[in-house]
Amino acid sequence: MDFSNDESMGKDSSISLFFRKIANSYQRILDTSTPYKLQRWIFAIVLIFLFIFRIISAQGYYVVIYTLGIYLLTQFTLFLSPQLGTLEMDIMEDDMEDEPTLPVKSDDEFKPFIRRLPEFKFWHNTIRATLIAFVCAFIPFFDIPVFWPILLMYFIAITYLSMKKQIDHMIKHHYVPFDIGKKKYSQKVDK
């Protein structure tokens, strides 16, 4: 009888069980952190500042911080974008002026703002990307010599152009992706 297959299957199942336990623990941490929005974002900002401190102290890894910046800019743009009526649809909408938009009058149909990238996924992607960049900032292979002022100017130009495009889209379709300044309705409880 050949027992080598049984031993390898036992190793495979124990390895998969180990990774399943890690995945379950990770998911449990994510689930318990969901209601703590302010604390999650404070953690993300602290992590980003630690990463920036690493970049400043190392005086290098400018490509890593540039890559992280572009990724976070892309995630932020997706966070600001509505799920329907995205920027890509504007090209098609130029031909169709009868396309529905968010209501601007009291008799218009109400369509709630649904983000293309939910807040929790935006936070989760920010944390993961920052941790990956932080690890890359300790690997000498990623310390590519570049003239960092050019990267900074290019990043500022990309940020300006993408935010201008996003703000124009928000003005065109009459939506604000934030709750700041919106009416708050309270429910009356009958006793």
From TrEMBL:
It is found in: Membrane. The chain crosses the membrane at residues 38-56, 62-80, 146-163. Pfam families: Rer1. It is a multi-pass membrane protein. GO terms for cellular component: endoplasmic reticulum; Golgi membrane. PANTHER family: PROTEIN RER1. Belongs to the RER1 family. This is Protein RER1. The lineage of its organism: Eukaryota, Fungi, Fungi incertae sedis, Chytridiomycota, Chytridiomycota incertae sedis.
